[in-house]
Amino acid sequence: MREVQLRPLTLGDLATIYLWSQDEVFCRANGWSIGLSWQQLRTWWMALLQTSPDVMLRSGVAVQDQLVGFVELSSFDWQEKTAVFGIAIGARSLWGQGIGFQAGQLMLQHGFDHLQLKAIFAEVHAPNLRSLALMRKLGFEETGRLPLHEVYQGTLSDVVCFVLESSCWNSRI
Ligand SMILES: CC(C)(COP(=O)(O)OP(=O)(O)OC[C@H]1O[C@@H](n2cnc3c(N)ncnc32)[C@H](O)[C@@H]1OP(=O)(O)O)[C@@H](O)C(=O)NCCC(=O)NCCS
C-alpha cells in the first residue's frame, strides 16, 4: 500500500494541475472544462489558493512527495458544524490503488477530530460508480437522490446524496 499524505497546495503545483487539465477523461469525470489555457488555469488556481480555509479547505494528496490529487472540505456551516466533502485523484494511472480511500480518511479525520464537525455531506453523480464505491467505503450513508439533477459526462444524471455523522465516524475507529 502506498503511503498517502496531505499537504498544502502551492503555486508551484500549477504545472501538475495543468497536466491533469489536459486529460479529457479526468476533466469529464471531475466536471472540469476541457482545454483550459495555462493563463485561465493560473487565474483559477491563484483564486483558489487565496480562498480562506474557513470557506474551503483544499489539501494536496501526495504520494512519495509527488502531488497526485486533492481533497477538500467546503460549504462550511460553522453554526451547525457541517461541511461538504470532495476529492479528485488527478493522476489517472493511480486510480483504483486505494489512494482516494486513504486521502479521504485523512481529510475526514481532520474534519471530525480537529474541526469538530458533526456531519460531513457528499454528492456524487449516479453513473460515477468509482466515486459511489469510495463514499460507501469511507462510511458515508446514502440519504437520497436528486433525480436528473446535473449533467455528468454529457448526460442528465441523478445525484446521490450522502452523509457521514461524527458518531458513525467515531464508532468506526
Ligand atoms: C473517485 C476517485 C477520487 C477515487 O479515487 P481512487 O484512488 O481511484 O479510489 P480507491 O482506489 O481508494 O477506490 C475506492 C473504491 O472504488 C471502487 N472502485 C475502484 N475501481 C472501480 C471501478 N472501475 N468501478 C467501480 N468501483 C470501483 C472500489 O470498490 C474501491 O474500493 P476497494 O479498495 O474496496 O476495492 C478517483 O477515481 C477520481 O479522482 N475520479 C475523478 C474525479 C471524481 O470522480 N471525483 C469524485 C467526485 S464526487
Note the run of SSEs as H and E: EHHHEEEHEHEEH
Per DSSP, what share of the residues sits in E-state strands of 2 or more residues? 35-45%
Main sheet summary: 7 strands, mixed
Q: Taking strands numbered 1, 2, ... along the chain, how are they ordered across the largest sheet?
A: 1-2-3-4-5-7-6
What CATH calls the topology is Aminopeptidase
Full CATH superfamily name = Gcn5-related N-acetyltransferase (GNAT)
Bound molecules: coenzyme A
Q: Any low-confidence stretches, pLDDT <50, length ≥5?
A: none
**Straight-line distance between termini:** 19 Å
CATH class: Alpha Beta
Mean pLDDT over all positions = 95
Radius of gyration: 16 Å
Number of domains: 1
Helicity, as a percent range: 25-40%
* Class of secondary structure makeup: alpha+beta
Give me the secondary-structure topology.
Elements: E1 4-7, H1 14-21, H2 24-30, H3 38-49, E2 56-63, E3 66-77, E4 82-89, H4 99-114, E5 119-125, H5 129-138, E6 141-152, E7 155-165, H6 166-172
Parallel strand pairs: 4-5
Antiparallel strand pairs: 1-2, 2-3, 3-4, 5-7, 6-7
Helix pairs in contact: 1-3, 4-5
This protein binds coenzyme A (COA).
Describe the structure.
The protein is α+β, with helices and mostly antiparallel strands and 173 residues long. The chain has a single domain, classed as Gcn5-related N-acetyltransferase (GNAT) (Aminopeptidase, 3-Layer(aba) Sandwich), CATH 3.40.630.30. 35% of the residues lie in helices and 36% in strands. The protein has 6 helices and 7 strands. It has helices spanning 14-21, 24-30, 38-49, 99-114, 129-138, 166-172; strands spanning 4-7, 56-63, 66-77, 82-89, 119-125, 141-152, 155-165. α4 (99-114) links the parallel β4 (82-89) and β5. α1 (14-21) packs across α3 (38-49) and α4 (99-114) crosses α5. The two termini are 19 Å apart.
